């Protein structure tokens, strides 16, 4: 689950995607993505629908969200 702004920034970097592209593909405003990332290590406060939309786009790019003790991301292994 996507839980922090830093996790979102890292996921977006791994997916090689800018904020505008992510926002467009997720159907949300670029300011929402920016605000989410500005939370840094704090928990996201955006609505679950927006967080889920962002996660769906990034997961389609091969991003896996990790929360085993601390939030993280990695690229899924390719078959």
TrEMBL record:
InterPro entries according to UniProt: Cro/C1-type_HTH (IPR001387), Lambda_DNA-bd_dom_sf (IPR010982)
SUPFAM superfamilies: lambda repressor-like DNA-binding domains
Source taxon at top rank: Bacteria
Residue intervals of the HTH cro/C1-type domain: 8-38
Protein name: HTH cro/C1-type domain-containing protein
């Amino acid at each position: 689950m996507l839980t922090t702004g830093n996790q979102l920034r890292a996921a977006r970097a791994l997916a090689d995607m800018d904020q505008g592209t992510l926002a467009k593909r997720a159907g949300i405003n670029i300011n929402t993505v920016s605000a989410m990332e500005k939370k840094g290590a704090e928990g996201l406060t955006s609505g679950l629908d927006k967080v889920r939309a962002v996660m769906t786009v990034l997961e389609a790019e091969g991003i896996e969200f990790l929360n085993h003790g601390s939030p993280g991301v990695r690229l899924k292994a390719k078959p």
